[in-house]
Amino acid sequence: MTTKSLVFLPFLLLILRAEANCRSGCKLALASYYLREGTNLSYISQIFGQKTSEILKFNPSIRNQDYVEKETRISVPFTCDCLNGVFLGHTFAYTTQPGDTYKKIAQIAFSNLTTEDWVERVNVFKPTEIPNGVVINVTVNCSCGDVRVSRDYGLFLTYPLRSGESLSEVSAEAGVPAEVVRRYNPDSDFGAGSGLVFVPARDDKGSFLPLRLIRAGISGGAIAGICVGAIGGGLLVALVVYVGMYRNRRKKVGEASILPSLPSQQHQSLQFGPGGSRLEKRLESVEVDSPRGITVDKSVEFSYEELAKATHGFSLSNKIGQGGFGSVFYAQLRDEKAAIKKMDMQASKEFLAELKVRLIGYCVESSLFLVYEYIENGNLSQHLRGSGGREALSWTARVQIALDAARGLEYIHEHTVPVYIHRDVKSANILIDKNYRGKVADFGLTRLTEYGSCSLQTRLEGTFGYMSPEYAQYGDVSPKVDVYAFGVVLYELVSAKEAIVKTNEPLNESKALIALPEQKDDLRKLVDPRLADNYPLDSVYKMCQLARACTHENPQLRPSMRSIVVALITLSSSNEDWDVGSFYENQAIMHLMAGR
């Protein structure tokens, strides 16, 4: 293992050490907001989305809501959610104002309840290019209690420490013994004058609420993992971590992980949750049998020299493409055809989640290099259009490719923590191997999201014709964005037409593929002519029904990728009847098929 690759091992240890899982949040938490010059209750009400009357319930000392002295702390109620099953927090939607920076939003607008780095990492805009009037995500952490400390406290205040504050002062203000506050925050430096602590708080009736065990969110001190865990709207760096033989050859590991991480300065600025411990202090030995993250088969480490030799110095003659995060080069590597992606490290700050195409290995030198199997049979778009003299895909092959792609998307939607969204599903990003099986590729625009949360908002990227209405109009991102695009791909499999087609009408207008007629009587007009009559019309009709369900205008009524996989398995294996229309007409059936 090279010295440079060793740099990434601490991140792996931290991630594996931090078993930061939560089963549920709690209905109520409080944020301690330090009122500055120019802010008032109306302003706090606006940014927290909370009625002034609700805020006043937790601040009985305020006699006049129209006048509150500056340099006063206001307790603001909010819901403490279990975000993505990983940590406790709440993501607020904040509308940017003229002159806003991430630092100003964190320190001024949200009164140090979060940090500049944290806000930047969960949003897509560059620090110097934050538009005015856009909605961004601001995550504030919270606590629901810790049974190991006390069962007497179940309501907590997220409290940003200020210069000059001490443990005794904070505990005295809360009316809680200093030792209790310290035990909830064992690694906090109360003399530092900064950072978050979690303090037991009183409810709107002035009483301490007991801990409700069903609401106890995160067990133990494992909450530190949030610094490298998944967050709502977060854009994280995914690192391919070396696995192989330990130095003493005692244990051979068969998998490598693509795991999220953050730069080390983040570790020093935040501490999360009662019993939480700072990441730099948690480097104990860990088990590596079941790493969290996306796993790929038998990844190995290559030297830069070997990759450079195999690509003739990454020459233009070997360059075969440009992906979302860097250039792709063809190589003959150790008697195997390979595609090497040279990662742009600035782009890597947003996210890397190459999944379905087999990862052979990697190299960390001046850049991050990922070595993949070389898929020499082209992509689905080329096959459907007959590019390079390719023969028409049979109907059976098309159904199988649809199923393969659906399984890949189902995996990132349903079986990863955090949940990933591809954002650029299209026929050109479905590769076809020599056995005519489909492999989802180019995850360059992939974003993560919180399971069960509202959709994220992001800048518009992707391919026209595949964009769902809510994404194209409002920038809303959820797994249903991928479902919509996959529906367009299903229409392509039937018709072999482009996602945007030219009509034969007098004005020769462009029209979305999904807008073409699909009634059973007219269906043969839509089917790819190269199929001739070699297809079962009923099967094609069912595929169109499924495509129609996927491209429903209302994202909530589109099926999940899991239910799509079930439908395609049924379609590919039997003539059994199924009603795809029920997927979006009856949400109960949709959820049942999704296993929820």
Automatic annotation (TrEMBL):
<keyword id="KW-1003">Cell membrane</keyword>
<keyword id="KW-0723">Serine/threonine-protein kinase</keyword>
<keyword id="KW-0812">Transmembrane</keyword>
<keyword id="KW-0472">Membrane</keyword>
<keyword id="KW-1015">Disulfide bond</keyword>
<keyword id="KW-0547">Nucleotide-binding</keyword>
<keyword id="KW-0418">Kinase</keyword>
<dbReference type="InterPro" id="IPR057097">
    <property type="entry name" value="LysM_RLK3/10"/>
</dbReference>
<dbReference type="Pfam" id="PF23577">
    <property type="entry name" value="LysM_RLK"/>
</dbReference>
<keyword id="KW-1133">Transmembrane helix</keyword>
<dbReference type="InterPro" id="IPR017441">
    <property type="entry name" value="Protein_kinase_ATP_BS"/>
</dbReference>
<dbReference type="GO" id="GO:0004674">
    <property type="term" value="F:protein serine/threonine kinase activity"/>
</dbReference>
<dbReference type="InterPro" id="IPR001245">
    <property type="entry name" value="Ser-Thr/Tyr_kinase_cat_dom"/>
</dbReference>
<protein>
    <submittedName>
        <fullName>Chitin elicitor receptor kinase 1-like</fullName>
    </submittedName>
</protein>
<dbReference type="GO" id="GO:0005524">
    <property type="term" value="F:ATP binding"/>
</dbReference>
<feature type="transmembrane region" description="Helical">
    <location>
        <begin position="222"/>
        <end position="243"/>
    </location>
</feature>
<dbReference type="Pfam" id="PF07714">
    <property type="entry name" value="PK_Tyr_Ser-Thr"/>
</dbReference>
<keyword id="KW-0067">ATP-binding</keyword>
<dbReference type="GO" id="GO:0045087">
    <property type="term" value="P:innate immune response"/>
</dbReference>
<dbReference type="InterPro" id="IPR000719">
    <property type="entry name" value="Prot_kinase_dom"/>
</dbReference>
<dbReference type="InterPro" id="IPR044812">
    <property type="entry name" value="CERK1/LYK3-like"/>
</dbReference>
<dbReference type="GO" id="GO:0005886">
    <property type="term" value="C:plasma membrane"/>
</dbReference>
<keyword id="KW-0808">Transferase</keyword>
<keyword id="KW-0732">Signal</keyword>
<dbReference type="InterPro" id="IPR008271">
    <property type="entry name" value="Ser/Thr_kinase_AS"/>
</dbReference>
<dbReference type="GO" id="GO:0019199">
    <property type="term" value="F:transmembrane receptor protein kinase activity"/>
</dbReference>
<feature type="signal peptide">
    <location>
        <begin position="1"/>
        <end position="20"/>
    </location>
</feature>
<keyword id="KW-0675">Receptor</keyword>
<dbReference type="InterPro" id="IPR011009">
    <property type="entry name" value="Kinase-like_dom_sf"/>
</dbReference>
<feature type="binding site">
    <location>
        <position position="342"/>
    </location>
    <ligand>
        <name>ATP</name>
    </ligand>
</feature>
<feature type="domain" description="Protein kinase">
    <location>
        <begin position="314"/>
        <end position="571"/>
    </location>
</feature>
